[in-house]
Amino acid sequence: MMKFVKGALENIDGVSIYPIISLTIFFIFFTVLFLWVITAKKKHIEAVSNIPLEDDTVTQNDDQL
């Protein structure tokens, strides 16, 4: 299977740029996410973390599904 994929990709001009672009997007995304987590306000993190524990949610019966 890999020989088939490798053979097909060898015939495409400029295909070597795609792994570099993918790695760059991956690195930028997680770097921005890391910076957001580091700089996030503590009150916001506490408020978001308590959302599942709040009791004012609407519950549905099985017959309404």
Largest sheet report = none
Query: Stretches where pLDDT falls below 50 for ≥5 residues?
Result: none
Rg is 23 Å
Q: Can you give the mean pLDDT?
A: 82
Q: SS-based structural class?
A: mainly alpha
Share in β-strands:
under 5%
DSSP summary: helix tally: 3
> Which percent range fits the helix content?
55-70%
N-C termini distance = 44 Å
The best one-word shape is elongated
Order of helices and strands: HHH
The count of strands amounts to 0
Keywords: Membrane, Transmembrane, Transmembrane helix
Protein name: CcoQ/FixQ family Cbb3-type cytochrome c oxidase assembly chaperone
Organism: Spongiivirga citrea
List keywords for this structure.
single chain; 65 residues; mainly alpha; membrane; CcoQ/FixQ family Cbb3-type cytochrome c oxidase assembly chaperone; transmembrane helix; transmembrane
List the helices and strands and how they pair.
Blueprint lengths: L1 H9 L6 H23 L2 H8 L16
Notes on the structure:
The chain crosses the membrane at residues 20-38. This is CcoQ/FixQ family Cbb3-type cytochrome c oxidase assembly chaperone. The longest helix has 23 residues, at 17-39. The mean pLDDT is 82. It contains three helices and no strands. By secondary structure, the protein is mainly alpha-helical. The chain has a domain at 13-43.
